[in-house]
Amino acid sequence: MNLQERNRAIKEHGKATRKRRGGMLCRVFEVKVVSSKMNHTQKEFVNALFREAKWFRNAYIADRSSVTDKSSSVPVKVGDVFETRSLEVMGSHIKQSIIAEVKENIRDLALSKAAGNKVGALKFKSFCNCVNLKQYNNTYKIDFSKSTVRVQGCKKPFKVRGLQQIPGDAEIANAKFLRKASGLYFHITCYLPVTEKIKPCASVGIDFGIKDNLVFSDGREPINIAVPESKGTKLASRQMNKALVHNGNKKTKNHWKRVQKLRKAYEHDKNIRNDAANKAVHDILSNYEIVAIQDEMIRNWHAGLFGGEVQHSAMGAVKAKLRKSSSVRVVDRSFPSTQICPVCGKLTKHPLKEREYHCKHCGYHHPSRDVKAAQSILDEAMRFYKVSPEQRAQSPVEVESYIDYSGFSLLSTRFCLRYRKLVTSSHE
Question: What is the DSSP string of 312-347?
Fold first, then answer.
């Protein structure tokens, strides 16, 4: 087989793999490296791998014409001069993944600039704590019987915990080798066969809030996913700041120990928030077929009066996870869900302290302002896509004939400027 035939076979195999995995369920499993089982050689390999990944990325950003996946050495800036450093442990597949990641970052910056946003050049990294392992059985290999993961370039495999999470019928793909404050991890991507599940037929609207993070239109109990800073995080932060003041802002060896302790505490709190977000999303998508949310700018809430509550909650993570589902319908952020009356369609402003809704035009009253807002979000999503309230309660098959799931997108921007006129004309 010549080179041309070999490349054609590889291309056809990749196309068949992507087609097969398109109908499968993608899951990422996290396994942790047992640090107590690592020897000196493995520790040196890990440090060299992440160090060389940083060198190669920065060198490729600086000069994309001369740095390729075949490069065995790259220039590294040391002070005011450049020194040539050899790449001893990093293979060509890892180099290819870094090149692909940089190209994707540049492409994203170009798209953002084309959209009218102010962007700068791609920045160099001062450290690298993530390495992509591109191909299974090539850049890395798993031994389930011994609970080990072998990485290309390292003679001894790493002892890990958590391989029992991966099902036996899973198709293992690429992975990521990460270095966190709590230790080393492998994020292994697997494709699982899809099993038929009974779909629910209910619909719900969700309103994001400060006091109650997730409020549902059907009146069920709200979900609060706020996880404040733990006592350990606050203590570690106070100890580090106090030591800095005592040492005159000099960063001693004990300072970096305190920084590492604080990073572990932050990572622990982050894991709790992610767990709460995953459970909330699973609960919502398991009980409702159609979920309507509003495109809130939750990240801008950090600058408000309740910035601390928003920062310690997982609302942003829940919103991002929900938008990835095909069951979720997104209403434009300009839609006045808290002001619009579901009866007369007119707007009534309420101060933030008033938690009940009362329309001054027609006299409509609702005991919960947030529940009314969630109902308005659901009504607007259904109205925009021509689905009546009677059709929502039908079976999933019947509902599917009224909704084109492939055409769902955000409602038009500045919709609220025309909303009152549209609603008023529809009621006449």
Answer: TS-HHHHHHHHHTSTTEEEE-TTS-TTTB-TTT--B
Q: How many domains does the chain have?
A: 2
The answer on 36 and 94 residing in a single domain is: yes
Main-chain dihedrals φ then ψ at residue 177, nearest 5 degrees? -105, 115
Take residue 254 and report the two structure tokens written for it. 């004990």
Q: How many helices (H) and strands (E) does the chain have?
A: 11, 15
3-state secondary structure of 47: helix
Instruction: Say whether both 329 and 283 belong to one domain.
Output: yes
Give CA separation, 15 vs 10, 19, 27, 199, in Å: 9, 6, 20, 31
pTM: 0.70
Q: Model confidence over 228-270: pLDDT tens digits?
A: 878 888 888 888 888 877 777 777 778 888 888 888 888 888 8
Give the single-character DSSP code of 196.
Answer: P
Cβ atoms < 10 Å from Cβ of 203? 23
What are the residues whose beta carbons fall under 8 Å from the beta carbon of 254, sequence distance 6 or more?
243
In this structure, the answer to whether residues 45 and 165 fall within a common structural domain is: yes
Q: Which domain holds residue 354?
A: 203-226+265-427
Calculate the alpha carbon distances from 254 to 69, 243, 249 in Å.
Answer: 40, 9, 12
The answer to whether residue 10 sits within a structural domain is: no
pLDDT tens for residues 50-76? 999 999 999 999 988 889 989 999 999
Which tens digit of pLDDT belongs to each residue from 218-230? 888 888 888 787 8
236 falls within a domain: no
> Are 211 and 142 found together in one domain?
no
47 belongs to a structural domain? yes
Give a yes or no: residue 275 inside a domain.
Answer: yes
Burial class (CB in 10 A: 0-12, 13-18, 19+), 9: exposed
The pLDDT tens digits of the residues spanning 278-322 come to 998 988 988 888 889 888 877 777 665 566 677 778 888 888 888
